[in-house]
Amino acid sequence: MSADRILLTNDDGIDAVGLRALRDALADEYDVVTVAPTGDCSSVGRALSDGATVSEHELGYAVEGTPVDCVVAGLDELVPDADCVIAGCNEGANLGSYVLGRSGTVSAAVEAAFFGVPAVATSMYVPGGEDWWKRELEAGEFDHAARATRYLLDNAFDAGVFEAVDYLNVNAPIADGDRAPMRVTRPSDWYGMTAERDGNGGVTFDDPIWGRMTEADVPDPVGTDRRAVVDGEVSVSPLSVPHDVATNGALDGLAERYGDRE
């Protein structure tokens, strides 16, 4: 199998700089049709709407909905002959197992996998601690992410990558002029979310990892996605769906005894 027609989506919105950077990197060789949200849908996970308004856009289609809405609408109606879904490039990294389910970018790739369509979710780590999201990004800063995505799209099908996995979660460092090396990784299992009452009847949440994203302080070993981007590498995690079902003798026993209880 090879890829000719690409469905491009994201969760930052169809006019995001990162999406344009990916499209520019792919459009000279591939038929790229964009089906992306009209606005920012970050961290919505696999939220699905009852329906969504679709408008024609110079890049393809703008959808008033979530990234998963875009993939379902795209693969089942708007671009049913797409060979691959590319999601991104997200402005901000999507690193660690606990992030995968809440990321709109990664969720678009997961939805594609359920359609049987290979996918690549691409995100870019933006340094700057907890204030990273305030940074105004330019297209050239996505060069590592765009180059890596193009390389994988050009080569992964012929290499048989998608015969073994459903999607690739790619995280790249911000471009600094030098080509970043690529490392195959696993999602980090480090988790540090906290909750604290705010004194006004609410609870505030904090993910302390952003304050630890330095070479000396990141709590992850070599081989994990977070370690790779901090080390200036492009992280590629080969992932599959659906969730695995593990054999569990204890649960089997409970189920067998269930009918015996009043």
Automatic annotation (TrEMBL):
GO CC aspect terms: cytoplasm
Protein's recorded name: 5'-nucleotidase SurE
Co-factor(s): a divalent metal cation
Substrates-to-products reaction catalysed: a ribonucleoside 5'-phosphate + H2O = a ribonucleoside + phosphate
InterPro entries: SurE, SurE-like_Pase/nucleotidase, SurE-like_sf
Family (UniProt): Belongs to the SurE nucleotidase family.
Entry's EC annotation: 3.1.3.5
Pfam family name, one: SurE
